[in-house]
Amino acid sequence: MRRQEKGQVKVCVGIDLLWGALVNDLSALLPILIPNLVTEGEMLQGDGRLGTVYHFKFGTGVPNMSYQKEEIVELDESVHRIGLQVIEGGRLGLGFTYYKNTFQLTATGDSETLVDATVDYVTERQETNAPPGETVTTGIAFIKELEAFLLNQEPN
Question: Which residue numbers delimit the Bet v I/Major latex protein domain (predicted)?
Fold first, then answer.
């Protein structure tokens, strides 16, 4: 069964700074920003562009999953859109046959960005062991943590 979950958040960080962190520093930032969920991140192949594959090890905050490999399957810098598809582990072991997170960034001011988070997924059956809405919530929480981190990194 094919489904989609959506969420949205506005952050007080300019689009270029936020985009740069998402595209260039994702594997390094996840363990720093959400250490209870992601304990390690590694870029297995690629350079942060289309086709890049990441390996993430999960912490105690992620029940029933120890790791996940994700590939950047969508990347459009002109509209600030990135899509990461789970290709191994993670939710694929919990009844999902397809799982993709997409973040669409839209500038709403010089130092404000609207982030639309979407999870597209396919399940083998009606019920799964992991409600997808949790991932949309986690994605939004990550964006908020990233906002706080980037605001603290900027010179005063």
Answer: 33-152
Tracing tokens 């981190």 back to the chain, one arrives at 149
Q: In what order do the strands lie in the sheet with 112-123?
A: 2-11, 112-123, 96-109, 81-89, 67-76, 53-58, 38-45
Which 3 state secondary structure label does DSSP give 59?
coil
pLDDT tens digits, 91-122: 898 889 999 999 999 999 889 999 999 999 99
**Does 155 have pLDDT greater than 60?**
no
Given a contact cutoff of 8 angstroms between Cβ atoms, the answer to whether 88 and 96 are in contact is no
Q: Is pTM, for the whole model, over 0.70?
A: yes
Q: Which of 101, 28, 109, 25 is CA-nearest to residue 70?
A: 101
For 2-153, which CATH superfamily applies?
A: START domain (3.30.530.20)
